[in-house]
Amino acid sequence: MIRIANGQGFWGDWLEAPVRLIEQGPIDYLTLDYLAEVTMSILQKQKQRDARLGYARDFPPLIARIADRIRERNIKVLANAGGVNPLACAREVRRLAPGLKVAAVLGDDIFARIDEFLAKGFQLRNLDTGEPVAAVRDRLLSANAYLGAFPLAQALATGADVVVSGRCADAALALAPMIQRFLWQETDWDLLAAGCVAGHIIECGAQATGGNFQGDWQSLPDLAEIGYPIVEAEPGGMCTITKHPGTGGRVNSHVVKEQLLYEIGDPRRYVTPDCVVDFTSLRLEEVGPDRVRVRGARGGPRTETLKVSASYAAGWKATGTLVYSWPQALEKAQAADRIVRQRLRQLGLQFDCISTEFVGVNACHGPAARPVQDPPEVELRLGVRGQNKEAVERFTRELIPLVLSGPPGATGYGEGRPPVREVVAYWPALIPRQDIEPRVEVLG
Amino acid sequence: MKIALGRIAHARSGDKGDTANIGVIAWRERGYFILVREVTAERVKEFFGGLVKGRVERFELENLGALNFLLHQALDGGGTVSLRLDAQGKTLGAALLGMEIEVDEHELGD
Asked: CB neighbours (10 Å) of residue A346?
């Protein structure tokens, strides 16, 4: 049996979590997931400004902090912290923790190969809209293929203490140690599916241990000290989800079910780079306090394509807020909205979208929100999106004047004008597997 | 009798591009069959009104006592494009628990 923990569900997750996972009990592998769908575009821009950047900068200092302990206890770390520059990330880890052997997994970044693919006739059509990528070619900011777990397992097999990848399937970070330790093969579909399911359960960190649990959340003990998830994986594919004893949160079948369903599509065909998983075959069993056993995973052959996650510049946006107080808080906010829209029209500004929400009334749930009677305050949240940056900038100056020139009782404008942000849109596509060549480079 | 869905189920929601997903999980085994009967794709689409521009798909996971819903074109363009406060649909699962469903009283008993 091996213990695989996840100490980071996204870049920005609790900094103490990975350290506690190491200090509060036994683990063999520590995985850390840093990359959301559009993180890569931000990192690509950083790399364009400075060729030594483009990775999750929180990661090397974290490794420096835990270096002695992971060496003493032979804990291996796997992280997709490499972003669009895994080699630079690996070098920085080596600089801060010179005693560690670091392996970088490369080959996912296809941003520099787009024209090669277009010349080959690959259209990289958007999976949602069907549009060929040529439509946004000149605005592309990043493009990465999702690698599977086998290159990561290969990196572990070099004896590396730390494996740094760029874009890989989130669940691959947890699957890789199972492949490497249990010698699972590329056609062991059921075993690979079992590992993917376990990886999926822990990839969002504490969402597998009671974080963001919508069931009886008030009954969960001590969320301030929540334990991050650990998979106890067996060579036959049986996995037990747990957390260190004495930590906060809870692992039961309902918590695990919420996470199993999180951000999935068709549960009979959950496509990963390594296999296609059938979630309808899974069986959960509570086998002890904070212990849920997962078995029965069925897997099908991997697809001939890999998913590509690209991003492109899609205009500009800004969102500002003003708070109106009782009485008639909602009516005042509605009047303010009408005034701003009228002024924008008079200025002749063009936008792709103007959006109004009333926080405290309907911002989260829209038409499904429960009716509110006479709220003590309402926040007007007004945003625009468009291709013309100047128009969006002009919009940002139209909210604060309402404090003196609109309905009474406006406040909450202390932050000043809202910032104008570039819109980075997501472009999912497919690419033939054979055109992606993952490779491993070892440092130290 | 009419009850809120939240009496027999819990939920978590998230995003993939411009599609929101909601996993709805029955608290008890028998509750699953109420979910299958009452929480149809059509009713979910109707419940969210203009928030969901595209279609709603439903998938059944009897093994987990759960349903998974895909709400297409529900996030104003998706995560980074959207102007919505809840650009990633994180709160839609909770919203759905407020939907009224029709049950016989005996279906709620032990």
From this structure: 8
